[in-house]
Amino acid sequence: MESGTTQSMPKKKRKWLSLDKREAAQGYMFVAPWIIGFLCFTGGPLLFSLYASFTNYDITSRMDWVGLRNYQIMFNRDPLFWISLKNTLYYVAIMVPLTTIGSLLVAVLLNVKVPGMRIFRTIYYLPAVLSGIGVYMLWMMLLEPQSGLVNTVLGFVGIDGPNWLTDPNWTKDSLILMRLWAVGGGMLLYLAALQGVSEQLYEAAELDGAGHIRKFWHITVPMVTPVIFFDLVTSLIGGFQVFQEGYIMSADPTNPGSPMNSLLFFNLHMFNKAFKVFDMGYAMAMAWFLFLIAIAVTIFNMVASKYWVHYEGGDNR
Amino acid sequence: MSQTTSSGPSYFEGRRNRERIRKTLIFILLIVGSASFLMPLWWMLQTSLKSLEEIVQYPPTWWPEKFVWSNYTETWAAGNFTRYTWNTTIIAFFVVIGQVLSNSFIAYGFAKIKFPGRGPLFLIILGTMTIPGFVTMIPTYLLFSKIGWVGSYLPLIVPAFFGGAFQIFLFRQYFMTIPNDLVEAAKIDGANHVYVWARLMVPLSKPVMATIAIMAFNGAWNDFLGPLIYVASEDMYTLQIGLQAFKVSSGVNQWHYLMAGSVLVLLPVLVLFFFFQRYFIEGMNISAGTKG
Could you tell me which residue ranges the ABC transmembrane type-1 domain spans (chain B) (predicted)? Predict the structure, then answer.
């Protein structure tokens, strides 16, 4: 547009510099929305919550520095904190391995050449695209002790099914069962990885006389370890965030987390502290505590991954 | 049906038979599995069409004795579902627009323009993917409350216009596959980057846009926590909150109504899935690429 002015620039070098600068300016303009979003919705809130976790902030006017008091209350004077932490850890510790193994096994089955495979894959994947209240309502009905589908089917094989969502010993397992219905999401990841495994590896193993189980352990599993790793990290972070299931699928709908606080997950307790009693400082201390756990687990995962994740082509000791 | 290769020696004959048995077993296993994966959906559908008397009947029936279509109209009338659907649609619409536009725009900057700090910034973006939402949830709420947006849909819509890590990553991956020569050629013709983005990249990236749009729609449609925190009055409820409120207020478990409601809430996603399966799967597959 202003080609006249650009051409009349005296020195070539300066012209290039200004071109670079103009290019950079445009670059910043393009990424500006993200930078603003980051400052407002991620970075800023992160710092604010860290600061506020050391205050008695209650949304009105108070925001006095109280040092570690929130954290002390958390560890020493809030039994619900420990209950909610235990509930969350239980959920994560059972759900993550089960869904990881489940997705991998389903993917292995769906990688065999049999007729109708496209339809099978669609069916197994379908539940994974559904989420939200419709699914929670559906499972609350399926898990009804008397008329529910789950106990009806268990009855066929002579098992007297538990009172899934009303017996505090079974509520978290109920949610895990529901979660397993959606293994199709992880399955897709594994399927993509399985299809990248070279057929020659299997043929070579067969020549050495390896059976299906040996081939699975010595070829399939090592080849998909990068996906297992990815799946582990994301489901752990997702698992720590469990909230809605506990809020909605409680035995007494007016008392989220019931029965007997067995579904009172960490985030649900935090939600109550923040939005029911407006103890924002305390809630943010809780948030940071769980964040630290999540970071520690993720870092542990990354360090440990060096010893078991196999990257093709990369020779990791 | 296994592939009929040239008939080999009898050693291969036996092996092929064993292979056939194995495949048959797997086939049966897959059918049983499919039935159990589909059964919950069938159960929801048939419960939504039964009378309450038939639902509590023991043993349960696997097919409604009488189809009670009025469950749907009664559910629709009992809650303010027309309103909830409209509200949810509005939010989802803007979230889709916001996410598709902003992420494509931002990703173009990261993919095709050189500027100091680009690499580190992109690393920060990837890093934010590992920050759990709950740490930023309360401060973000406080921010919106300070500027007086609580009680409106703005907190649910506006952030969609400022990019998301995963979506930026997805778009960037795609833009990287488009040759730089194309951008250079357009620039030599006098186009600036905004023009190149709007006229070249946007039309070329329709498949990614479809993937992002579907993910955004699903996210907005199924969002529970957002509306729970920000929506104040009953006439602003979304379907998620509305259905939950309906359950709480109905007290006893009115499964025929609740399942009719659930079918209605899940239907748009199901329909989208059947028409745009490819994009659901693509979203998943590209996310697998994140592992590097």
Answer: 85-276
A41 touches chain B (CB under 8 A): yes
Contact with chain B for residue A227, Cβ under 8 A: yes
Beta bridge partners of A55: A65
Which helix or strand (DSSP H or E) is residue A199 part of?
helix A199-207
> Is B177 among the domain residues?
yes
What are the φ/ψ torsions at residue A167 (nearest 5 degrees)?
Answer: -95, 115
Last residue of a domain, one of B21, B49, B69: B69
| A278 three-state secondary structure | coil
From the list A246, A236, A263, the residue with the least C-alpha distance to A80 is A263
| DSSP 8-state code for residue B254 | -
CA distance A152 to B216: 37
Same domain, B142 and B209: yes
pLDDT tens digits for B161-172? 999 999 999 999
Q: Is residue B131 part of a domain?
A: yes
Return d(Cα A63, Cα A77) in angstroms, integer.
21
Q: Averaged in consecutive runs of 10 residues, what is the pLDDT profile of chain A (317 residues)? A: 46 63 92 96 95 92 91 96 98 97 95 92 94 96 91 93 96 97 93 90 89 90 92 91 94 92 97 94 96 92 91 57
Q: Residue B99 has which token pair?
A: 């996410």
B130 to A237: CB separation less than 8 angstroms, yes or no: yes
Contacts of A237 (CB under 8 A, 6+ apart): A294, A298, B130, B132
**Torsion angles phi and psi, residue B169, rounded to 5:** -55, -45
